[in-house]
Model the fold of this input.
Amino acid sequence: MINLEGKVALVTGGANGIGKAISKKLAEAGATVVINYNSSESKANALVNEISLLGKTAIAIKANVSNFVEATTLIDEVVSKLGKIDILVNNAGITSDNFILRMSEEEFDKVIATNLKGTWNCSKQAAKYMSKQRFGKIINISSIVGLVGNAGQSNYAASKAGIIGLTKALAKELAKRNVLVNAIAPGFIETEMTKVLPEAIINQYLESIPLSKFGSVEDVANMVCFLASSLADYITGQVINVDGGMVM
Ligand code: NAP
Done:
């Protein structure tokens, strides 16, 4: 049984999709959860209420993680409001797909800024507090696209591969301070976005998944809870695929 009572967790982009499932599961396991949002204020507040109804504590904080000052202030605010930060889930992410010949410099830069630099920004400030308290779990949401690439996603694949390198470097840097850093590489996860794909495309994807089904947001959230818990206290610097066997 996973028990995160007494822990303070921050989930970036925690109001939607996979982030929402992660926020809920961490709260259900007993953690006090900070839901970061950038534009989804009402969804973040609704989730705070939903978690409160479970008898658990959550607050919402607005910040654009791609902005260094906002990301740093976000982490400082978590600590000033809740006294510490034990678990950081770098989940916030965007896509802006195009083949390289058509992709603009702006499309490349904004995906790298949110996905990769946002993860670095939050990790840098969280590492300061976690190192001092000699405890921390940083869990970065990468993607199998960062492992195997995907046509039309040179920006996204580079950002997600970058997150894997960042994860391993930080795991080595911070291990002596008992700060553990891991990445999760989800495969095809069913979200609002994927529900609207044409049937032919969906069937094509399904054929490439040994378990013959898409993942759920809960599948990813379960792995986050495991890595955040004491059950995973001997695991650091790893990339764990949650992908139904798609990449092996
Ligand atoms: P989603 O529903 O689009 O949610 C993305 C979240 O990121 C939103 O809550 C959004 O917050 C937040 N966000 C975006 N830019 C931000 C910024 N600058 N600052 C703070 N928050 C920001 O996407 P999802 O499918 O749940 O994906 C979550 C993570 O899983 C992403 O890192 C994604 O790359 C990864 N992933 C997803 C899949 C999949 O199949 N869905 C597969 C592999 C990996 P606001 O709405 O408040 O702006």
